[in-house]
Design a protein that fits this description.
By secondary structure, the protein is mainly α. The protein contains 4 helices and no strands. About 85% of the residues lie in helices and about 0% in strands.
Length: about 120
């Protein structure tokens, strides 16, 4: 549940940062979204580490979190592209991303990012 709440909050942060950068500072959308993604991912890492998984922030968890986030981003792009290639409504693509990427990234974080070393 905490992972889901954090994800919703990170999404909100991404949207707010991107909209402000685009509408108030005339930032190009791809630059604004990159900055927004990095901002939201930083928030997500800190919140998931400290709250969702009750862990400590470290170089190890940050590195692993970044790799899982990159995987999630690439998987999202691939699913969205596949849905578009199949001529599905974009909302179906979004639902597929939520249904597939969210549980996979949660599992990767649970089993790898925050797994305690032996």
């Amino acid at each position: 549940m905490r992972f889901s709440v954090t994800g919703l909050m990170a999404t909100g942060i991404h949207v707010v940062v991107a909209v402000i950068l685009i509408t108030r500072l005339s930032t190009l959308p791809y630059v604004a979204n990159t900055i927004a993604f990095l901002t939201a991912t930083g928030f997500s890492y800190a919140t998931n580490t400290l709250w969702s998984f009750s862990s400590r922030m470290s170089h190890r968890t940050l590195s692993r979190y970044a790799r899982v986030s990159l995987f999630g981003c690439l998987a999202t792009m691939a699913i969205a592209a596949a849905a578009e290639a199949a001529h599905l409504d974009y909302r179906i693509g979004i639902l597929l991303v939520i249904a597939l990427v969210t549980p996979i990234t949660f599992t990767l974080h649970s089993l790898w990012t925050y797994r305690l070393p032996r």
